[in-house]
Amino acid sequence: MSQPLKVGVIGVGYLGRFHAEKYAALPDVDLVGVADLNPDQAAQVAGALNTRGFPDYLQLLPLVEAVSVAVSTTAHFPVVRDCLERGLQVLVEKPLAVTAAEADTLVDLARDKGRLLMVGHLERFNSAMEELRAKVTRPAFIESHRLSFYKERGIDVDVVLDLMIHDLDHVLSLVPSPVQEIRAAGVSVLTDKVDLANVRLEFADGCIANLTASRMSFKSMRKFRLFQPDAYLSVDFEARELTMASRQEGALGPLPGVALETKRFPQEDVLFKEISNFVAAIQGREEPRVTGEDGRAALSLALDIIGAMRKAKV
Asked: What domains are defined for the chain?
């Protein structure tokens, strides 16, 4: 019988605490410890999960084989670099880093060390999105709205890196063509960063994607719509629904010859699915769902969009 995988979590604030809980629930994993700059927070989470708390993550690294990194976005690069340099397998919350150069360094370092670098684009594990992905053939037009109430979390970066990057990852994984043109606009409302952003992406194969993200909304919305020849697919992440409309001879849907179906999915623990995939990928039982290269691609596009917004203001 193989030994349990020794893991740790660096940063056990809002998201990191959940990471630690999921590892603690896996039978083939030993949650060796958690680290946080706030020693009281580290001790509290460690006590709840019957593990050790560390005020300095460097003390944790020699004791583990793999880590989740859930520190603030601006600290991703130095922490992930330290982990990879010590030969650890790493799951880091999105976005991978703050700059393209940082992302390149981390991806190259993981490759050189022969270690897994996985990025926490959580919605790749949403069942409705998984089913939509299986039905995509030739995307022609994509539209997404990701609106949320104002929260203190994530405001150290623009809303493009905080929220829109989820949908950028979806789009890049669904459209097999390079981006040719970016038209973007954004405004700051309550922070010194962009709080509301809209972008229109034109791809070389003709596909258009129109994405909106806001952390200044009075209502929450997470919807993703995709149009392709003969079909329309829509995911409502909050309602956990996939709506599909397609041409079908003899169908008696809302229009003659159009079949309409709405599929509802039960509540699921997508973070548990993500962390299970990370562990299984380390153990060679599954392929990692979101690689460092995927995370770098989403970050690079997000940064290009931020650059386009700044040019539009000049």
From this structure: 5-122+271-290 (3.40.50.720), 124-266+300-313 (3.30.360.10)
